[in-house]
Amino acid sequence: MNQNFLLQWMKQKQVIIPALLIEHYSKLGINEQEFAGIIHVQAFIEQGEPFPTPDRLSERMSLTTAECAKLMGGLVKKGFLSLDKHWDNEGILFEFYSLEPLYEKLCTFLQSKEIEGQEKREEETAGNLYQVFEKEFCRPLSPIEAETLSMWIDQDQHSSELIIGALREAVISGKLNFRYIDRILFEWKRNGVKTVAQARAHGEKFRAHQKPKKTEKERVRADAYPSFNWLEK
């Protein structure tokens, strides 16, 4: 290959298309022809030509000028492309295309996917929650206990992880009953505890605060029951 030609080729600007757009454009309702049009518009913008006409697009695509005009109009109508205006310092009006609406739609789509995935994980965890409790209690839950568990999730908005954390706290304290677990969750909520890490830090902070006040006899008893007695607070 001719070296000068190769150098000129390497100096050409690159067109940057986000990998997430390549992965999800069909899910946004963009077909192959529209995606090709978007790539060309992006290329024109990066090459300093922010308002490519249908004629200019037709020079690069296998579409007629009329078809390119229809393609661009469709992208604008579907909210993937916007035609904006700008006045320069001399009062001259310029029009330019922007792909910002497309990237806003992509961000919204990705956020909804993340929320959907999180809700699905929560549902799966909630389904396992009953099994975790029945395993710890070594028996099926009573209707009232099942209703209490649902109330912690639906009414009190406790995460499944936090409920399991309270269950573990009750097991360690040797007080495996729903009243004790409910008290733990109440105290956590009152102190703004929303995650297991925060609950662990809260418990350690409280125990550290209580430790100097304990007598030798109490410390022996505390070793037997290392956690804070939530019902006696």
Automatic annotation (TrEMBL):
InterPro entries: DnaB/C_C (IPR006343), DnaD (IPR053162), DnaD-like_sf (IPR034829), DnaD_N (IPR053843), WH-like_DNA-bd_sf (IPR036388). Residues 17-114 form the DnaD N-terminal domain. Pfam families: DnaB_2, DnaD_N. Residues 130-202 form the DnaB/C C-terminal domain. Belongs to the DnaB/DnaD family. PANTHER family: DNA REPLICATION PROTEIN DNAD (PTHR37293:SF6), PHAGE REPLICATION PROTEIN-RELATED (PTHR37293). This is DnaD domain-containing protein. It comes from Alkalihalophilus pseudofirmus (Bacillus pseudofirmus).
